[in-house]
Amino acid sequence: MKKTNTFNNKNFCFFNKAMFILIFIAFCSGNVYSQNGQFVLEANGAAQVTIGSSSVNMWPAPFLPNRKDSRVQFLFEADELNNQGAYSSGYTTISSLAFHVSGFSLGSLSSYEMRNITISMGHTKATYNGDNSVIPAIPVWGITMPPPGFCTWAGSSTPEPLQVVKTPFNLTISQTGWVELQLDTPFVWNGVDSIVVEICKADPRISPPSTSFSTGRYQFTGRFHSQPSGSDTWTLTRSLRNINNNVTTSPGCNMQLSGGGAVNTEPALSTQYRKFRPNIRFTFRCAGAPTAGEAILGTENFCKDEAVTLSVVNDEKATGLNYQWYYSYADDDNYVSLPGQTAATIPVERAGVDIWYKRDVGCNHNLPAGTRSSLGVKVTGVNTWNGTSWSFGSNPLPSLPVRIQGNFDTTVNGSLLMEACSLKIVSGTFTVRSGDFISLKEKLVVDDAATVIFENNASLIQENNAAVNEGKILYKRDSQPVRMLDYTYWSSPVAGVTPNQFSPGTPSIRIYHWNHLTQAWANGIANSPMTAGKGYIIRAPDGYPSTGIGTVFQGSFLGVPNNGLITVPSQGGSANWNLLGNPYPSALDANKFLLANSTLLDGTIFYWTHNTLPSAALNPLFPHISSYTSDDYATYNFTGSVGLPSISSGNNTPPGQFIGAGQSFMVKGGASSGNVVFNNDMRKNITGYSNSQFYRNNATNSEEVEKNRLWVEVIHQNGKFNQTMVGYVEGATDGLDWGYDSTMTPSGDLKIYTKIGDDKLVIQGKSLPFNSSDSIPLGFSTTLTGEFTLNLYQYDSIFENQSVYLLDNATSTFHDIKSGMYTFTSIQGTFDNRFELRFNDEALSLNPNIKTENSVLCYTNNSDIIVKSLTGQIQSVTIFDSTGRVLHKKTSLDTSEILISEIAKNNQLLLVQIESDNGVKVTKKIIF
Length: 928
Fold this sequence. Notes:
Blueprint: E1 14-17, E2 24-27, E3 38-41, E4 47-51, E5 69-76, H1 78-82, E6 93-104, E7 113-124, E8 163-172, E9 177-188, E10 194-202, E11 218-224, E12 237-241, E13 276-278, E14 280-284, E15 294-299, E16 308-313, E17 321-328, E18 336-337, E19 346-348, E20 355-363, E21 371-373, E22 377-379, E23 383-385, E24 402-405, E25 408-409, E26 417-420, E27 423-432, E28 437-440, E29 444-446, E30 450-454, E31 459-462, E32 473-482, E33 487-490, E34 494-495, H2 499-502, E35 511-515, E36 520-522, E37 536-539, E38 551-561, E39 566-570, E40 577-581, E41 588-589, H3 590-596, E42 605-608, E43 633-636, E44 641-642, E45 658-659, E46 664-668, E47 674-678, E48 707-716, E49 721-729, E50 742-743, E51 750-756, E52 759-766, E53 775-782, E54 786-795, E55 805-808, E56 813-816, E57 822-826, E58 829-838, E59 856-861, E60 864-869, E61 874-881, E62 886-890, E63 897-900, E64 909-916, E65 921-927
Parallel strand pairs: 23-24, 24-27, 25-27, 26-28, 27-29, 27-30, 28-31, 30-32, 49-52
Antiparallel strand pairs: 1-2, 3-14, 4-11, 5-10, 5-12, 6-9, 6-11, 6-14, 7-8, 7-10, 11-13, 15-16, 16-19, 17-18, 17-20, 20-21, 20-22, 32-38, 33-37, 34-38, 35-36, 35-37, 39-47, 40-46, 41-45, 42-43, 43-44, 48-49, 48-54, 50-52, 51-52, 51-53, 53-58, 54-57, 55-56, 55-58, 59-60, 60-63, 61-62, 61-64, ...
């Protein structure tokens, strides 16, 4: 009987069949190996090493990229396979082998190609340490390299030939892990003798002059068999390699001797390194009924509704197998074959219901042994709309994907909000109506056979910044009413659309962007795709009305919806401006946007309102031969917002926390230049979310912070208009605060502002708690003369029940502005200290009676005269010229507002007499 050699130890599993009873006893501890046609040999009992971790231990490696020629042989004893049950399980034919690479000493090795490699295998009677106690004795394999084509042990008189199993090939090892080498000719193992694997390289290149040989080292996992101690001849690895890479001959597999001679090599491996051996994995050809294993989902991706990969674990690893996949609507015996699905691993699309899958496997080399079935696996279905109903019988859930395969309308078939993990629209027309939401954790996929329409004010909200949308949507966006010379500030919520495609009726020379580097308007970009996060200004199309209230422009953006992290360059510095835009098909939280970019941007956003028609005067700041007024910007910061239209009948609703889809805006530069960031955290559907208005948004602020605010407006008799706001807000101080205080733009015909020191503010945030003893300076500047009116336009929170007074320092008038407007006259100029806001009534006795005429406004707007009553109904209006001639008269009106357009504008003084329902008459002077 053969002596137990050094590879028999307690770190492996083996089966010992008793001689007279059919009982198998398993002995197993330590490593557990596959017994399904694939076996890893690690020289158990030896110490783990990394071959190639240094320049001195790399020579036992199977591949040497730094040598032109090499010949290496490895010994693998029969017990290493038999102790894992290989031969007893019928495995005899090796079809492939693999070595395990754990790293590279140089990154360039991953692209390096070795050339002209040959692999041979053979049997040998020898073992690592031999055994003289048996007859015949088992020889020691030894360090001596045998003649070419043989694997004979040292001193053997009996040739043991090698068989070429893989003809010359080139090899690039591009990544770590098992390097699998399929054999051209399978090697049939006899189950008794040791196996020798020989790898030879005879690279035809020469160095120098060629630099084709790498200086790096592959790092292989392996073992160092230092125990038990014994003869220095005990060997696991023989290795020879050429001394120089500049010889013209390529000995390769002909290497035999060590040292000297044209084809000779460096010395044989030292006593230590001949006991190194890399780990190897043998894969055998199947032999009987294979192990079936358990079917699994190799790639889940359920949330994304992507195809799943079905594979099997704990199955047969041998080669020569055949497969067939089956499906069932229940994990039972009623499985049906999937035609053509005969691969080991297959992709399947999710269905509208749950489906189970299993795989049968058989051996081509032993068909009579039959097949075995894996355990089944369930592929969860996707709730699918077929045009009439949901496949799950219920509406979608936020945690699950959704699929559309038919027409769907959120008004008819859905609800205000559809939440899902992901959404795939396969076919039909999918319409999201105005004000409705689609909220997804992952991506939106639109197949070519489908049409997706987001109506004006609809929203697509997404959570994962890394989700990549697929397919185009049509996103509709309506502007405020515009006249032909009006510009609207746009930003694209989709990729790929050009300004000309979006507004084909606008001349290309009337489409601009703001060059943040040169701080100037520039055109020439009409046919270039709109950049996500960047703002554009586009004039109304030709043919739109030149006067009046204008016409709504109904725009459509066609493209893949933008999502996730988006960056846009910005220019720092308080004197510099940046034109940015909401890049998403949903509203953008202005507060989160400003906070995320606090070092790059000032804390105030400016929205263009296009209320005022341009004048004929040239103005180089604006992109047209005519001049537009900077009064037409609305302003927003953390304290709140003001509308800043030039005329009071315009677009004067103040903006709020949410920036509408398609909207662009101006922001001054901050402390430094850099890339402004947009991300999905800025587009969450939180309380107060609104995407319903363009240029402005719902003024509701979702943040749970205390805000007590009041808005004051000034109106000139010709209709010019301006606002300022003061707020006692959580987070603000009484000093100048980023994000809470907004400085006034100096240009414009009419300005009202508050002050902190010398700074003039359109929005001022003040600290809490509110102090009723406060006095707030209210400045006033104008290029106009005549009659002006101050009005407490709006107030909230604490000011609902708090008195508010206006002190006119020029007239020593103390006025309860909460009870009524205050009318005064002024010449041109700047009056920083004329007015104050007060909150105590100790000086109320100084206030004269509020004049009745303060409750009536009369002003002009283009070619119209507008009369408004703030306290009662207007009964009649009579208009006289300076001679007393009646130009217009209307009676029995019973209205609070009237627009008069019958009088031709002639730049003359007119007297407008208004009689109210209580019989009081008021006369106003206007120039018209």
